[in-house]
Structures are given as structure tokens and as C-alpha cells.
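can u do me a favor
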């Protein structure tokens, strides 16, 4: 039973996130995703836009999602985030602070903190 759980968690970690860009790519290739996927993405988009917070979602490498409030708050172009490499976006965001180095250091620690938190629950 323990090994099945470990395998399941390993598979989840390996699966790339489903993003709107991935959905658009499928549409360009004339491949129709399942209605459940379209519905799930629509719900996720609505939740991101209805929240009062500015949200940027990244994995360790790529920007995977963001909401309009984030664009407005940081005054960043949509193109930068849609094509964004997380490292470059963090570097750009750091320039908005009086002490960019402090922001940069704190933001680069986030993936490490996330890894520690996820392994402490196993």
C-alpha cells in the first residue's frame, strides 16, 4: 500500500501542469480536450480572477499562470508572463524594491521551502 502511494506521488510530480497555454496548443492542433478538462480550467480561471489577491503561479522553471490583478499590481506586460521563465520574472520583479537583492534572495528560497514542506508531510 505504501509503495502504491509513493508511485502515485511520483507520477503527480512528473506530470506537467495543465495550463491555458497547453489548452491553446491543443486547439491549434485541432485536438479537442475532454469537456471535464475544459470545465476544470474554466473553474480554475474563475477562481484566480475572483480572488482579491494578485497571484503568480510558477513551477521551478516556468510561469504557469497568473491573474489580472497581478498584471495590474506589478505593471508587467502579459507577454512577459505568458512567455516567462520564473527566474527572469523574479529578476524583473526585484527591480521594484528599494533593496532588490533582499527580494531576490527571499524569492529564490521559495522552491526550497516548498520542497521541505512537501517532504515533511510524507
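np, heres the sequence
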Amino acid at each position: 500500500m505504501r509503495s502504491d502511494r509513493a508511485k502515485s506521488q511520483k507520477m503527480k510530480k512528473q506530470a506537467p501542469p495543465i495550463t491555458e497555454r497547453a489548452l491553446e496548443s491543443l486547439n491549434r492542433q485541432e485536438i479537442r480536450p475532454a469537456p471535464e478538462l475544459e470545465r476544470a480550467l474554466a473553474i480554475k480561471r474563475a477562481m484566480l480572477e475572483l480572488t482579491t489577491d494578485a497571484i503568480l503561479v510558477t513551477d521551478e522553471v516556468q510561469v504557469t499562470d497568473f491573474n489580472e490583478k497581478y498584471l495590474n499590481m506589478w505593471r508587467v506586460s502579459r507577454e512577459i508572463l505568458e512567455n516567462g521563465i520564473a527566474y527572469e520574472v523574479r529578476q524583473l520583479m526585484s527591480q521594484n524594491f528599494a533593496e532588490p537583492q533582499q527580494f531576490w534572495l527571499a524569492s529564490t528560497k521559495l522552491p526550497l521551502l516548498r520542497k521541505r514542506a512537501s517532504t515533511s508531510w510524507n
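Confidence is low (pLDDT under 50) at residues 7-14. hope that helps!!
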